[in-house]
Amino acid sequence: MSPTTISASSRTRGGSSPPVARRQTLVRRRRGALAIVVVILALIGLAMPLARKAVNELTLPLAYSDVIRAQAAQKHLDPALIAAVIDAETKFDPRPSSAGAEGPMQIMPQTAEFLAKRSGGYAFRVSDLNTPAVNIAYGSYYLRYLLDRYGQSKVLALAAYNAGESNVDRWEAQASARGGALAIARIPFPETRAYVAKVLNAERRYRQTYPTQLGYR
Fold first, then answer.
1. Dmax over Cα atoms in the chain, in whole Å?
2. Residue 111 and residue 140: Cα distance in Å, rounded?
3. What whole-number distance in Å separates Cα of residue 202 and Cα of residue 210?
4. Cα gap 58→43, rounded to integer Å
5. Which of 29-43, 67-81, 149-163 has the lowest mean pLDDT?
6. Which domain holds residue 123?
7. Distance CA 213, CA 210 (A)
8. How far is residue 22 from each of residues 13, 17, 28, 33, 34, measured CA to CA in Å?
């Protein structure tokens, strides 16, 4: 065999085209890598609902859903609105405020006493506000009262829930004098302005996030 023949044969064995065994090894490695990717994606797919649930619980918590549904039905309110007010007030972590408001919906004792007399609850005691079911009942009653007082306007009712009726009456009168209704952007108190926007946004999110828990289906 000539040197030329040997050289050509060597190039065939060691040239750019890999042997069959090497190609098979590469294919197996690629398939193995692809299988790992598929498994990882599957695990991510399984984990995503759990991750979303955890994020919701941190950013949009919900508790007392049975009480909220019952009070919403009794007071003819959207359960998501009640949940949104609780979220804005305490994030479902009841604690007394520096102003003396109590419970999940942060009811002031004097407000609760007014509501108790109005609703016929003469056996009411301020300490009852520490009981979530009682607190939510009074907060829901107050929301219903405010909505009725302000012609079913959520903006005005929520502004009054946060800043008081006397302030809202004054702002509404000023808006009427200008020839319009009180819009969120025209609420003078920045805190109240932010509060109303926050509750309305949270109401929508609660309706979308917890349809079963809040009784929409």
1. 117
2. 12
3. 11
4. 22
5. 29-43
6. 64-209
7. 5
8. 12, 10, 10, 16, 18
